[in-house]
Design a protein that fits this description.
- This protein is an alpha/beta fold.
- The protein has two domains: 157 residues, Response regulator (Rossmann fold, 3-Layer(aba) Sandwich); 85 residues, Beta-Lactamase (2-Layer Sandwich), CATH 3.30.450.20.
- The chain has eight helices and 13 strands.
- The strands form four sheets. A six-stranded mixed beta sheet has the order 1-5-4-6-7-8, with helices on both faces.
- Helix 2 runs parallel beside helix 3.
- The radius of gyration is 27 Å and the shape is elongated.
- The chain starts with 6 loop residues before the first strand and ends with a strand.
């Protein structure tokens, strides 16, 4: 075990690209990796290899130190040795997931144990992926980390896009729904629940329960519209009345399209 210290490698990292004249230009990279390993030699080799591949690296020699550095630096990705004294990588990963910003950060677990129980335990602890320790596959390690970051950012962008859509639907009082006729199950967007006065259920609701909100004398007409859509164009556009739990009658405009598997 080495003396505890906060190390940073790879400052001012850049990536190469060619400009329009074919000359190599320098493109800055800001991805920060938190490297956690109690073995100073292994940590030095890994940090140097990552710095050579345009990573900024901060180092921790144990689980407790790693949690402190994560809270202070909010790295883009964590590389975590599985087997460490006191607090091993599995416990460290579990605790990291409870930190602010730690819920979704990519965590790559390093292990010298290429066996299913260790791999399963890594995933149970919250690791994003695992990597068998090596002294030669540095490029593979680097590319694995870059892929994990790209995937994480895509998930963040998707979540942000969904949040914006939900907000727009709420403002416009617009909702969306999907009815699986075979399963007799309806999934609704967040805004659909208050429009129809339905109890919020993330997994959806039974179709009979949703159907019960439609005013009774409207049901035969709507059923006919559905049957015609299934047999012909597959599209519908109509208005109907729904009865909310407080007795209020609300007119809703519905547009739908049948998608057959």
């Amino acid at each position: 075990m080495s003396d505890r210290k906060d190390n940073t490698s790879g400052g001012g990292a850049t990536a190469n690209r060619r400009d329009g004249d074919g000359e190599i230009a320098r493109e800055p990279r800001n991805d920060l990796v938190l490297l956690v390993d109690d073995d100073p030699v292994a940590r030095l080799l890994t940090a140097s290899a990552l710095a050579e591949r345009q990573w900024r690296v901060i180092e921790a020699d144990g689980g407790g130190h790693a949690l402190e550095l994560f809270a202070a630096n909010q790295p883009d990705v964590v590389v975590l040795d599985a087997l460490m004294p006191d607090m091993d990588g599995f416990i460290t990963c579990e605790r990291l997931r409870r930190l602010n910003g730690g819920e979704h950060v990519p965590v790559l677990m390093l292990t010298g144990l290429d066996d299913e129980p260790s791999i399963a335990r890594a995933y149970e602890a919250g690791a994003t992926d695992f990597f068998v320790k090596s002294t030669s596959q540095w490029t593979l390690l680097s590319e694995r980390l870059r892929y994990m970051i790209r995937a994480s950012r895509m998930r963040e962008e998707l979540a942000e896009s969904r949040a914006k859509l939900t907000k727009a639907q709420r403002i416009a009082r617009l909702g969306s729904w999907e009815w699986n006729i075979a399963a007799r199950w309806v999934k609704l967007s967040e805004e659909c629940f208050p429009i129809a006065g339905l109890p919020r259920q993330d997994d959806g609701l039974a179709d009979w329960f949703v159907w019960s909100r439609v005013v009774e004398d409207e049901r035969a007409r709507i059923e006919m519209l559905f049957r015609e859509a299934l047999a012909n164009t597959g599209q519908m556009k109509f208005e109907c009345r729904i009865a909310r739990p407080n007795g209020q009658i609300r007119v809703v405009h519905i547009e739908s399209e049948v998608d057959c598997d």
